[in-house]
Amino acid sequence: MPVSDPMESPLELAKAFVRGDQPRYAVEVLEPWLEAHPDDAGAWSVMAAARFELDNLPEARRAASMAVDLKPQSARNWCNLGMVLRRAGELYEAERAQHRALVLDPSHDRARIELRKINELRTGERQPPGHKDFI
Prior knowledge:
Helix content: 55-70%
Largest sheet: none
Structural class: mainly alpha
CATH architecture: Alpha Horseshoe
Distance between the termini: 32 Å
Number of strands: 0
Order of helices and strands: HHHHHHH
Shape: globular
CATH topology: Serine Threonine Protein Phosphatase 5, Tetratricopeptide repeat
């Protein structure tokens, strides 16, 4: 069976840009894609990651919310939204999003890590090094 080039898809290209620490390029690829395909939950999720990495929290929140609206059964989408909300300082809403992610997937490790981060912010405890924020 022939293997197709993953870079054929704008979504895969955008993911590669986010993973390669080039979120601006991901945004450039995804903006026209999302204009043509506004119902693509996966593209909104990657857009949220790119905007998150660019520290554009209002746009990251909008993109993460779109991903959740389009695919509410995705634990990953809920977790990503919760990460954006936590970084924006909206701890109550962030906690609710992480709990929703765990209802959908009780083994979602990233949601558990995020809940610990929220608790640490509330209690003033420090998190161990190495827990980089990423979507």
